[in-house]
């Protein structure tokens, strides 16, 4: 990898050790708020404290991340939860077995619509209160029906990658609201940094994306945030750390150290006391290169849903550690797989569930923490830990991971 | 100067060896790199080369063009958009990213080092694709060299400006002519074992401090 993409690192004086002799791990990331745990692990010295020299390489696309990990230019990367599944199953690519030993965050996405679309949705009865996912879906359905009656072009929504949770969240929300995401609207992939420009230029009418991009759209007075992932898919798995399975099996000790470093970093990053300091860190040019005030909104759970409106305290808008957030969720992964089949990205094969269980490895995460020098892990502290795997979408339709076929029938 | 540099970049290639029946789509926002690529392809004997610079219109164009090979810079953020088009399209034959085909690792590594990614229609034989990738890699390197030379030229120009300004300050302050000012700078550089540019820069900084005082 190129040296200019590897950032200089700085750690707290008391943890400063000679990193030159430590094993190096290079992970790719996309400049989004939910790369927070990776940045903290490096910049606050958690990685060095666990005996690894963590380097981060900023990438411009998820395709780049997939390719560079596949070729060994990166040891692993921040990935959309669907990516390791697509890579392992070989959907539109040569298969390569992946492993997910750590979840970087739950929630963190939002659906934002243009001011024009927002006004159209607000014209009917019972306009959705903020974050009323079902009511927002009904309002969108009504606008779409009206546009179809008038013979107008379908609305276009942006998301970030075919195998992104954003894609599945938009589709699930629409389908549950009576909208056919393949025929009633157009879904297009737009790189996050271009999302706001696309909204301004009228190429898209709304989008589902990670922060800070919804807040940037609000800041430019181009749109309204109407739904958070926290409500659409409670505690939903979002970004994960994905590494090649071969690398994981050959570097068990280093991987365990990485998991411990990330877990400590996540605990620090999730502490509300640190949210402004974290915003300053992420706002820096080598990470997001965005105004600190905009970056802080998701981190501090204070979301501005529209220009000139009041900040709203949104519970769990972005979860970096609490309630077992870092535990890779097999059940959530199986649901993502079910959506790949539902939307015809993947062909249903009976053995796939076992493959997915081999990718998402809560046992690897737990084993790494069992060896932690700092004693029992906070994971056991939270009452929500056991519940974190339970899938809870806004319409509360039950998902049985052992019977995907019935779920999709 | 650009023309001059361009002509130096063009590498000797075996003209007329390429497969004229293949359609190659170049997605590239930088017009110079696009031109270098396109020239390379034509020289190598490829007949159907289409260049698109605007990502917004790419989906429609891909359907119309139905390319066998797509060439795009590795660091183009729109690769994710491109990959979605292959997913949803029922009308276009599906190109897949070359990188994940690990059977020809050396070529793929060379492509990544050069900063280019290639998408090839599924099922297209490797022997037909290989020469295209080779041309692409060499042209991406050529473009990078061109960029480096341009950066060096710009730097040299900037350094000359600093030296000119330092000379001007010395001429005014010490009431000497241009040659004397230049010699003064040069002697200082030699005695301090520093670059002429660094001495000139110090003169500017010092003058600025005195101005502010």
Structure description:
- With 409 residues, chain A is α/β, with parallel strands linked by helices.
- Chain A folds into two domains: 3-105 and 237-286 and 323-408, Periplasmic binding protein-like II (D-Maltodextrin-Binding Protein, domain 2, 3-Layer(aba) Sandwich), CATH 3.40.190; 109-232, D-Maltodextrin-Binding Protein, domain 2 (3-Layer(aba) Sandwich), CATH 3.40.190.10.
- Helix content of chain A is 40%, strand content 16%.
- Residues 1-16 and 375-387 of chain A have low confidence and may be disordered.
- By secondary structure, chain B is α/β, with parallel strands linked by helices.
- Chain B folds into two domains: 2-150, 3-Layer(aba) Sandwich (D-Maltodextrin-Binding Protein, domain 2); 158-212, Arc Repressor Mutant, subunit A.
- Helix content of chain B is 61%, strand content 11%.
- Chain B has helices spanning 2-9, 31-43, 58-65, 79-88, 105-114, 126-174, 178-192, 196-212; strands at residues 23-27, 48-52, 69-73, 95-97, 116-121.
- Chain B has a five-stranded mixed β-sheet with strand order 2-1-3-5-4, with helices on both faces.
- In chain B, helix 2 links the parallel strand 1 (23-27) and strand 2.
- In chain B, helix 6 packs across helix 7.
- The longest helix of chain B has 49 residues, at 126-174.
- Chain B is elongated.
- Mean pLDDT of chain B is 81; it is low at 1-15.
- Chain A binds chain B through residues 60-64, 66-68, 70-71, 73, 92-94, 96, 160-162, 188-191, 193-194, 203, 345, and chain B through 56, 74-84, 86-87, 94, 96-97, 99-102, 105, 108-109, 112, 117.
